[in-house]
Amino acid sequence: MSAPALHRDRDAERRVPGEPGIWLVVIGDLLIFGVLFGMFLHYRAEQPELFAASQRELTPAFGFVNTLVLLGSSLAVVAAVNAVRLGRSLAASRALLVAMLLGGTFVALKAVEWTTKAGDGLVPDTNDFFQQYYVFTGLHLLHVLVGLTALLFARRIAAAGARQRQDRALIQGAAVFWHLVDLLWLILFPLVYFVH
């Protein structure tokens, strides 16, 4: 391997995935959700009995299945990014389709869960717990929908071959955002369903 090629490989290893702007979004979202999570814990500390009783009204199985769905989706996104790096556009496109189908499954399960809770009379104005439950899971669901849109664009780029460095950076940026969606859920799920 020539010295210039070796130097390019080292630069590629040190490069941050995706577009730099996506990292501003990630940091901003983490800060905002950090404040929201802190607010949840504050209200929880002020009304422990109410929050504990309200948590018992939730169905942790929904949250658990949604966690598995999002983790599977993130694994598919990882497979897609690796396929793009190897120049396997069809494999990348298929992996992104799997990720999107799993993301859609998350949306459908969340809709069923909300409908079930609302049918039981547990709506945002029931109490402080359910107000925060719907706001936080709703904000997360909005992130899922934005992430699905990003994955759709990434899939189109991958299907076209993703030959340019910019194409690969856009796919990586979509992957980074999707992993943020996953990370937020991995914090939100135990916080809302289990923390006492």
Q: What can you tell me about this protein's structure?
A:
This protein is mainly α. The chain has one domain (18-193): Cytochrome c oxidase, subunit III, four-helix bundle (Four Helix Bundle (Hemerythrin (Met), subunit A)), CATH 1.20.120.80. Helix content is 84%, strand content 0%. The chain contains 7 helices and no strands. Helix 5 runs antiparallel to helix 6. It is elongated and about 55 Å long. Mean pLDDT is 91; it is low at 1-11.
Structural class: mainly alpha
General shape: elongated
What name does the CATH topology carry? Answer: Four Helix Bundle (Hemerythrin (Met), subunit A)
**Distance, first to last CA:** 57 Å
Q: Sheet bearing the most strands, described?
A: none
Low-pLDDT sequence parts? 1-11
Please count the beta strands (DSSP E, at least 2 residues each): 0
Strand content: under 5%
Number of helices: 7
CATH homology group:
Cytochrome c oxidase, subunit III, four-helix bundle
Rg over C-alpha atoms, rounded to the nearest angstrom:
20 Å
Helix content: over 70%
| Architecture per CATH nomenclature, i.e. the level-2 architecture | Up-down Bundle
For this entry, give a set of tags.
Four Helix Bundle (Hemerythrin (Met), subunit A), 7 helices, Cytochrome aa3 subunit 3, 84% helix, Cyt_c/ubiquinol_Oxase_su3, mainly alpha, single chain, disordered N terminus, 196 residues
